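User: I'm putting together notes for a lab meeting next week and I want to include a structural view of one of the chains we've been expressing. I don't have a solved structure, so I'd like a prediction I can at least talk through. The sequence is below, exactly as it appears in our construct file.
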Amino acid sequence: MKRLVVIGAFFLALLWQTGSAQMKDAQLMIGGGLGASYSANPALNAFSSFSAGIYPSVGVFVTDRLVLGGQINASYNSLVVEQNPILSQVNLGLAPMARYFWSDLASPFVAFSQLSGGGNYTFYFQDGVMGSMRTFGFRATAATGVSWFVVPNVGIEAVLQYTYATSTPMYLQLVVGVQAYISRK
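Assistant: Thanks for the context. Below is the predicted structure for the 185-residue chain, given as structure tokens.
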């Protein structure tokens, strides 16, 4: 019990010391995130799916709460069904993105939502060997999350992201990232 009280007091002290967001003076947002998801369905007898991705982005504030910019999507998806070989794919894409901040910009925790959609190039693999099939399609993501400002111009983010692509199954990912808010003044 003592350990729990000490840990709780430590986190309260840490939160007390955090900075608040200073985005009103910011003109650029630069950063990115890493995401992963896993799913399995016992009813389908050893079906499993794994996805991991990296999502760098850059944007410009067009109002105090709206950022427009671009995002690179690089992800790996793997699928195993029963005794079949492992099927996997690598997706690479570039997409315009829009992010809107919902919370008060003066608090240490700022909620946001983000949309992006654009082209996606997919390479297919079977048992680790690249196949001859490659496709170009559409990819869209919708995300919502919260940014915790540990210092006034840097936020650590936790995001729940839903992805749809013409070449991959739809999936939900937990993405953790860092964004820096830079002023040109």
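A couple of points you could mention at the meeting. The domain at 20-182 is CATH 2.40.160.20 (Porin). Residues 18 and 152 are 8 Å apart (CA to CA).

User: Perfect, that's what I needed.
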